[in-house]
Please model this.
Amino acid sequence: MLSDKPQAHQYILLVLLGAIWGSSFFLIKITLESITPVTLTAFRLFFASIVLSGLVLILGKRFPRDLQTWGYYALIGITGNILPFVLISWGELHIDSGLAAILMAIIPLTALLIAHLWTEDERMSLPKFIGTVIGFGGVILLVGPEALNGLGDSVLGQLAVAFASFCYGASSVYARKVGLVKQDPIVNGSGILLCASLMALPMAFIVEDPMSLEPSFLSIGSLLILSIVSTAIAYIILYYLLGAVGATFTALNNYLVPVFGMIWGFLFLSESYELEAFIALAVILLGIIITQIKGKVFRRLGDKFVMNAKGGEEA
Model:
């Protein structure tokens, strides 16, 4: 059963998840300088699975023994890891990162709709819908509306990233629907990544030729950070939040991803930003806040507005 309202530490974890995944796009760019997309995906999953599997053993936890759960792990490994990782890596070879950030912001919209159709406890409400749309508008404002001018320039690259967004949203809701989120998040993350890596590694050797690559130390370092931080650690946070506060709230971290892209750029690349960027940040935060307003409160505000309007007309 979901908590009625996210707690302070869950908001902190949501922000942390956005910060972690906000760094993954430029890490992918660096890795792709000398490592090909499918190989990047396979070894990212492989190293992450080693980290989490080791953690499971160190903490004395146990993997599930039923085939049904491992079937869920395998399906989510494909739809929530292999497909989106490959699609994003390939898509970033053809489109700008700004447009990729906007397309990735489809995830909360996707999660909101699918959760409404698939689950009983994450129904769409007016505040959720309005807040999600406002947050999406904030992402466009942050990245810059001019990024939308690139729509149509590389249709396949854009479709790849957009479909990856859909996969992320759908797999998160599916994990809730089948009850995986009731289990230990470390075990879930480890099982899913283990299945995904076992499928992705042979694929890399069939589709590409990893042994012929000559990766730079910078690319290897970026790949390891992607594996340990952006995948292993992020998965623990992700599955904890999915179980505690649901897919719709958890998906909102994707509105924070471009925000942290801006912050990382300021900290590490000495980039400066105009007033519009901070307005966009305020819009995104406003959208997240609105999604957490209960429908009853929203309806009361609407009733008060109507009553005041009528009172004004009578006067």
The longest helix spans residues 217-245.
